[in-house]
Amino acid sequence: MSDVLGERAAEAAGRVDRLLGRLGDLADPEARALAEDLVRAVSDLYGAGLARVVQLTARSAGLPGDHPACGCLEALAEDELVGGLLALHDLHPSDLRARVERAVAGVVDGRDGSDATVLEVDGSQGRVRVRLLVAATSLTGPDQVERRVRRALASAAPELEEVVVERPPAPTPVRLLARR
Prior knowledge:
180 residues, 6 helices, 54% helix, globular
């Protein structure tokens, strides 16, 4: 995806988040419910359109849309924006656990002294639990690693409602005692 398209998508996502936040602040419960219903309906419409795009793309390749040999869906899912939309509309070819594992592995590879383990993926609750390990000698601090993990999970699995990141307690500094 070009940088311009990526920037436009990021701006649109930010705008959606801000507007959804403001929606909750509406004083009139009827107006709030109507606006939330409109957002769901538009999202459903775009999801149906995206499903049709996947189906038509596969059909143009001479395959049914859900055919496992159709590489079109996998190719689309590799794009960060499209992959997130596919996941949001339950069209992604990879299950939640695979997407979570891939996202975490993509941001913590051990080269910078950080590592992470996926402890739990609960799709029914929209919950993931990850344990971070950041070496004391790492140039990347635990806060930075956690932010990278959270961003990667938000992109790969937008349906998640809760991401729990566990960290081991910070090591106690060792004091060197001078000999008398």
